[in-house]
Amino acid sequence: MHDVPHKPGVYIMRDRLNRVIYVGKARDLRKRVGSYFQPSREMRADLKTRALIDSIWDFEWHTVKSEPEALLFEGRLIKEYRPKYNISFRDDKRFLLVKVDDQEDWPRFRLTRLKKDDGARYFGPYAHSGALRQTMAYMRKKFGVLTFGRGAPTERERKSSTYQVPFKLGDIDSTQYRGRIVAACDFLAGQSAECLAQLEELMREAAAKLDFERAAELRNMLDDLRKTTKPMRRFTRHSLPTTVDPEADLKSLADALGLSAPPRVMECFDISNISNTHVVASMVCFRDGRPDKANYRRYRIKTVEGQDDFASMAEVVRRRYSRVLLLAREEVKSLTDAGPGIDISPEFNQESVEDGLATAAREIALRNAQIANSPSPPVRLPDLIIVDGGKGQLGSACRELQRLRLHDLPIIGLAKEFEEIYRPMRPLPLILPEDSGALRLLQRIRDEAHRIANGYHQLLMKRRISESILDDVPGVSALRKKVLLTRFGSITRMRRVSVEEIASVEGIGQKLAEQIAAHLAN
């Protein structure tokens, strides 16, 4: 904490998976950030703040020059990271931007709250909307540029005295007008020193003539222009050294579980059964203590009715490692076809074909593990399997591994409530210290599996809600709905195609296609 300065700025809180969970601003960074780690703060805090404090694993800070800059920067970071513990700035309200589209014949300066990738030029965001509107009014008179509206100037705008710098709009063409746009853009981008100096001189002259009302108006205008045309600056970023050490955590985990070597590849399973509609599962892979997102997998539970965590865990473990063994079969075949390799036939091997296949998979896994700098071998059994749950989930997974002749693979269950580690053939759970690197590593992979499973469940629920729109169209049966979604993939894509394309689907005529298109359009 001694490295955190007594300066205004923005601080970012992260969890053990390095995800941003909260963004805040402070007039004094050290006082604000330090308050989170005071024991009295957690005792007095509400449930949300306690959950935030318990989730903080690391933090970083950005120093700024003033509180308004901190406010702007905080909003920008919240929009970027979408932290789970932030409420403000997560709705549709955004700071104002100034947009000018150079592709128009007569570009106009307009206010917007959403920046799009449309080729236009954007300035901002601006925290002071009143100051920004005063600046727009000043730009109309100073540079003779159009604001708001669309298209070429109207007859009234051509004759208006507001736009006569140095000629009225009616006396110039669009090419000459673009020169005004360039000057106004430079002014808004921060090249405003000359204009501000002129206004300051006019303010002094008005004060010398005892015209204090005019001088006050010019002073207020100067304040507004300085707030709006202040050049954007880059923020200084600092972060504390992270306490996550994957190599040390892996060694600690191997020692805690009695493994012969640190588990280089770990796979963790989690079930999401928030409702009976879509029961899903996730499998995340950690390689060398870090997420290996290329080998993440998502599953829809197919053989289980209702909410049955044990049966769902059994299904997903069976599907995952049956697939691994199938790939092993193909690789063994390619090795034997290519020359001397692994022979798993009963004629030369006392094991059954399935036993030989499992042995081959293990041997291939060992070979792949020994290949230097091999990031993702095609067939690789994990060094450790983790299931999210207690004895029940672990027992279901172990039975499936035994059926697949993979009973000697290391596997554990991690129960979330008390972070208890269950192991096969051990009646009592293993409880590691809260500050143990091994426990932190297990928590990281378990939380990641939980995030992927819940995200997949939410995605399927959104799809179901979207697809239910077709149920309200007369004449669209369940079979026709399935055919339409198979053909176009989603409701969003169906909205983009023509009526003729919808009518070309088997079983959908022209009249029904028109009804579907009209319903989706509404």
Q: Strands, helices and their partners?
A:
Blueprint: E1 9-14, E2 20-26, H1 29-35, H2 39-44, H3 47-55, E3 58-63, H4 67-81, E4 96-100, E5 109-112, E6 121-126, H5 129-143, H6 155-159, H7 174-188, H8 193-208, H9 212-229, E7 236-239, H10 246-257, E8 265-272, E9 280-287, E10 290-291, E11 297-300, H11 309-338, H12 353-370, E12 384-388, H13 391-403, E13 411-415, E14 420-422, H14 437-467, H15 478-488, H16 491-496, H17 499-503, H18 510-521
Parallel strand pairs: 8-12, 12-13
Antiparallel strand pairs: 1-2, 1-3, 3-7, 4-5, 4-6, 8-9, 9-10, 9-11, 13-14
Describe the fold and architecture.
This protein has helices at 29-35, 39-44, 47-55, 67-81, 129-143, 155-159, 174-188, 193-208, 212-229, 246-257, 309-338, 353-370, 391-403, 437-467, 478-488, 491-496, 499-503, 510-521; strands at 9-14, 20-26, 58-63, 96-100, 109-112, 121-126, 236-239, 265-272, 280-287, 290-291, 297-300, 384-388, 411-415, 420-422. The protein has four domains: 9-81, GIY-YIG endonuclease; 99-229, no CATH class; 246-454, Nucleotidyltransferase, domain 5, CATH 3.30.420; 473-521, DNA polymerase, domain 1, CATH 1.10.150. The two termini are 56 Å apart. The chain is built from 18 helices and 14 strands. 29% of the residues are buried. Helix 5 (129-143) crosses helix 9 (212-229). The protein is of the alpha+beta class. A hairpin with a 5-residue loop joins strand 1 and strand 2. The strands form three sheets. Strands 8, 9, 10, 11, 12, 13 and 14 form a seven-stranded mixed sheet that branches. Strands 2-1-3-7 form a four-stranded antiparallel sheet. It is 47% helix and 14% strand. The longest helix has 31 residues, at 437-467.
